[in-house]
Amino acid sequence: MKSPEFDYVKVRTLEQAIALLHANGDEARILAGGQSLLAALNMRLSEPSLLIDIGGLSVLRAIAVHGAFLRIGALATHTDIENSSLVAQHAPLLSLAVGRIAHRAIRNAGTFGGSIANADPAAEWPCCLLALDGWVLVRGPAGERRIAAADFFTGLYTTALADDEILLACDLPLAQRDDWFGFDELARRSGDYAICGLAVALRFSGSVVQSAHLSWLGLASTPLRSRRTEALLAGQPLDAATLQGVTDALLAELDPIADLTHTGATKRHLATVLARRLLEQALATRQGLQPGMH
Amino acid sequence: MADQQTIHLHVNGQAHTGNVAPRTHLIDWIREDLGLKGSHLGCEHGVCGACTVMVDGRIVRGCLTLAVQTDGCEVLTVEGLGALEPARALQQAFVRHNALQCGFCTAGMLMAALELVQNKPYATRAEVREWMSGNYCRCTGYHAIVDAVCEVLAQQMPEPAKGAA
Amino acid sequence: MSKVMESQPAALHDLSSDPRYIGHSPERPSARRLVQGQGCYVDDIRLPRMAHVVYWRSPVAHCRITRINAEFARRMPGVLLVADGEDLAKICKPWVATLGHLANMKSAPQYPLARGRAHWQGEPVVAVVAESRVQAEDALQYLQVEWEPLPAVADMETALDPETPLIHPELGDNLCFQRNLDTGGVDAAFAAADHVLKTTFEFGRHTGVTLEPRCQIADWASAEQRLTVYHSQQAPHMMQDLYARQFGIAESQVRVICKDVGGSFGIKVHAYPDDFATVALSMMLGRPVKFVADRLESFTSDIHARHHRVHARIAVKQDGEILAFDMDDLTGIGPFSMFPRTSAIEGNQVVNLVGGPYKHQQYRAQLKVVFQNKTPTCQYRGVGHPIACAVTEALVDQAARAIGMDPLEIRRRNVIPDDAYPCSGISGVKFESLSHQACLARLENLMDYHALRAEQEALRKKGIYRGIGIAALIELTNPSAAFYGVGGARIASQDGATARLDPNGGVTVMVSVGEQGQGTEAIYTQIAADAVGVDMAQVRVVTGDTEVTPYGGGTWASRGAGIGGEAVLLAGEALRANMRKLAAVILQREAQTLDIHRGSVVDSASREPLCSVAEIGRIAYFRSDLLPRDFTPELSVTRHYAQRDYPFIFTNGVQASYVEVDPDTGFVKLLRHWAVEDCGRVINPRLVDEQIRGAIVQGIGGALLEECLYDAQGLMLNANMADYLVPMCAEMPDIEVAHVETPTRSSKLGAKGAGEAGTAGAPAAVMNAINDALAPFAVSVTSQPLTPQKILQALGKV
């Protein structure tokens, strides 16, 4: 359908955007890439009276290293991330995941910040941010704040952003030498929202997993970390016994929400398959790096 | 009643000024205001790809782009493809392989294929399939479309690579 | 049948003295303009003073409409009219969609807009017409409709239970149609069998999802009292007839024009309530009114199809002989049978087609077609064939497994032999000449069957599970009037072509079968060029306008090549003969010493050019003074053709699917697909192969991905492009096609139909391949779509 009517302002400064948000509250929406917002408007699921177009704020599109973090600007498109050698070097998890996001035409317009702020539990970026324990930088009338990923996604399409705050960027801890990253998702058609997906971030110390982050998409109303299973992995070598332990732990820990075609039980089973496959890959890579290990 | 906005942009190399309601989609402005009917509407939720056009050299969904967002941009539609290589090569390959039947998806397919051949000149057949899976076709079953795109990729290969021993 | 049937298959002979185009694959004339974005689809057309309609549709499966308040909607900017069922009933008659030859079929009267009661989620109830589409959509939100929910019949298994409410109390029950067929010795055959395999099959309801939604512009010109409808439709003459009758005007007051159609597949061959509503609104306003279905509304307003539950059994001897099939088919349609082709045809065809390729002598079939409060269903590409073939071919595979026989071998032993024709199938269908054996042999080579079996074996040892699925099929094409005409429906089974030599030497051919992308216009150009004796570039084909073309049936049941093509051939030949007569008079020679060859009049023996066809055209049209008083050139010739030798001209084919199933995830990877098809004379091999490929992928959609999901209240849960899964490029296999050509004797052209066979066989081939892959686990899946979850459940993993 055609979109319902709305007023539109293309802002020239961030302050202008924040002031408009503050003045209009729930009636205003930020327009960045618009790939989720405009689809919702076209289905008349949402009727904001004002769209604040921040697309001209090019400073928000930067991808750059800031101290110990890779800072990804809110307006970086998924294609920008796909093409970024900085991302490939410092946040390779994102490079692994980006090709799974929708299709090229969506990736060319959709933005990193838009995906984080939209907080779809089946989206790739919230899941990856949570896997990396990244930070969300936001600014409102009261100033800037940093919100940890674990505190940011509070419910279905709901975040810790106040109505008058704008997401500026996300900080991702720089990848270290002994880090291993993996990403996989199961979707019946390439580019669809996945039935379930997993972002794995492991930090090794020799052959031992010093810390493991297992971050899931498509299982709950937000991306989630299976922390009990992570705790099981921490301090363990990655071997067949540990992998079996991971499967058992996930079966106990995960309680996925069903979707139109998949029960919670199916999703739980698929989650264990994803975990096993990614961790087997990690094991194979570590064995490749440290010959003689098994 | 929302205020109309004035936009200045180029479409297929020609300068245009538009006076649009903010909610007007790019695809509707192209079709109704400019009369360029070659790009089509199939779903208006960004999934089918029939409305795919290029803005500043990148494919986007015309139904998920507001006309006002394209102020100052260069827009390319199917009507502008004949003036560009490798777009013309793609059109000719589509005709040769009968990579279109009813023609409704074709403009979007050509746009997606154009960005592929421009950005992934070494794409494998599987990669072509993956890339083109953002555009729905109900008529062809995709095989002929993939053949046509692969043929253009092969044509584009620099000579030494073709005969590499 | 009036002809003596010979037992040898017909040979493919040349159709003209210089056959340049038939049998070859020249480029489609319309392809060039389409790749340049120069199509003309209904939504591209803008008429002066054209208005736009949107429909308020029932949000629930069944409700009583208690109040419609249009006061605020009417005040919205640009609104011209808000109308309801009562308004439209004044000018448009209701209809009942039954066919006389389907005895006991019943349905209730249906109106263009619901009156008092809405019967399915998506039934149109109120029309809002405005100057622009967006204004109409804005106004729709201010329309206030009050309704009370009524109990919904949403489960076909219980539709006939005494406790289930009646959708139409006056009909007495929720049964639309039933049929029973019994050859009499079925129980004895099952008793004599060495193995009886029994399975319940499910086929999910799904829909066509044409990329161009349904759309039309109705233009009632009140001064002239003429209705013109620009329609994205397959059968313009049928719609002309229906508009005339439902609105009580003369056929000659109605013109239907079909220009470019963005995909149809049967979805656009039916007469929808909103078709009539849009016409009524134009009459009420005296202005053109455009309707374009929004994608979301398409999912609940386009016809659905293929919702069946089949209990079936096969009886087989240890030596591989199939003795009998026995099946019980339940199918759930909508609350009304769909107009005018009816919703009973699909189930009726399942009865006719189960077991089709085989020579068993015993068959029992029971069919019940029941009403539900869900979107109405009707013919969609393949119409019952995908279900019949899947049931049959799965049982044949199960039989093969039970007796330890190779699946190709069991088919070789049981198909009706190629030299047995003409003959009848045990369900009563009449076959002219099929080639199951030749097709099986061709397939075996084409796919290198034995190499694939070896590969499968080797990979199984490594824990990789691949499967090969075979599906033999029969497909009805080129229907006679036995399909609809005998049942009282005014649906033409004949078609006509007018071939005309124009003054400058061009040939214009106007044909009553139209184009929706399959290449109809291309093959008619080829046929006409060969028949008349001119270059393809000199031929122009005109279709899709009731004002211009002869009267005919249009596109459905894979009849365009065989029936429309024959009319073009006959008209072209007749025009050539008249051109030779004219040339004879002009050149003062005997007609039989002259011929038309590549745009020139030539000496028929030496092919020496004597003059151009443009020259004889010039004289005929502008220099009648140079012609004898007793001779009048007839350079515009019309010929009609109807297939009257058989109820249908059946085709046959066989498909194979090669898949890999991941037993951990239940995901199926389609590795490759093959089809060997016998559609008689192939006019343009590339176009036929592309039809088959597209049809196969459409069948794969139903087998793996597509389903209209409903809740217990009859609400569709996935009515959008994100949640209703259609096949996209990445998951589809490469598809190799080969042909056997057994022409039909029922026409000179010898062409049978090819449009639907791909859809008929693909679900069967894929399901059989998946079950072949799962065979080491001794499990199988028989519920389509075959989702990962169903596979995991069969494997006991969830």
Assembly status: heterotrimer
Q: Per CATH, what is the topology of the largest domain in chain B?
A: Ubiquitin-like (UB roll)
Kindly name the structural category of chain B: alpha+beta
The CATH class assignment of the largest domain in chain B is Alpha Beta
Please list the strands of the largest sheet of chain C in the order they lie side by side: 3-5-1-13-10-11-12
| Percent range for β-strand residues of chain C | 15-25%
CATH topology of the largest domain in chain C: Aldehyde Oxidoreductase, domain 4
Note the gap between the termini of chain C: 57 Å
CATH architecture of the largest domain in chain C: 2-Layer Sandwich
State the major sheet of chain B. 5 strands, mixed
**What is the count of DSSP helices of chain B, taking H or I runs of 4+ residues?**
6
Helix content of chain C: 25-40%
Textual characterization of the structure:
The complex is a heterotrimer of chains A (294), B (165) and C (798). Chain A has 294 residues and is α+β, with helices and mostly antiparallel strands. Chain A has helices at residues 14-24, 37-42, 78-83, 85-90, 92-98, 104-109, 112-118, 124-131, 149-152, 227-233, 240-253, 264-289, and strands spanning 7-10, 28-31, 50-53, 63-66, 69-73, 135-140, 143-148, 153-155, 158-159, 166-173, 179-186, 196-205, 208-217, 224-225, 236-237. Chain A folds into three domains: 7-53, Uridine Diphospho-n-acetylenolpyruvylglucosamine Reductase, domain 2 (2-Layer Sandwich); 59-173, Uridine Diphospho-n-acetylenolpyruvylglucosamine Reductase, domain 3 (2-Layer Sandwich); 179-289, CO dehydrogenase flavoprotein, C-terminal domain (Enolase-like, domain 1, 2-Layer Sandwich). Helix content of chain A is 37%, strand content 27%. In chain A, helix 10 runs antiparallel to helix 11 and helix 11 (240-253) packs antiparallel against helix 12. With 165 residues, chain B is of the alpha+beta class. Chain B folds into two domains: 5-80, Beta-grasp domain (Ubiquitin-like (UB roll)); 84-159, [2Fe-2S]-binding domain (DNA polymerase, domain 1). Chain B has helices at residues 26-33, 87-97, 106-119, 125-132, 143-156, 159-162, and strands spanning 5-11, 14-20, 52-55, 58-61, 74-76. Chain C is an alpha+beta fold. Chain C has three domains: 4-39 and 494-641, 2-Layer Sandwich (Aldehyde Oxidoreductase, domain 4); 42-150 and 213-261 and 267-301, Aldehyde Oxidoreductase, domain 3 (Alpha-Beta Complex), CATH 3.90.1170.50; 385-478 and 647-794, Aldehyde oxidase/xanthine dehydrogenase, molybdopterin binding domain (Aldehyde Oxidoreductase, domain 4). Chain C has 19 helices and 31 strands. In chain C, helix 14 (520-532) packs parallel to helix 15. Chain C is globular and about 85 Å long.
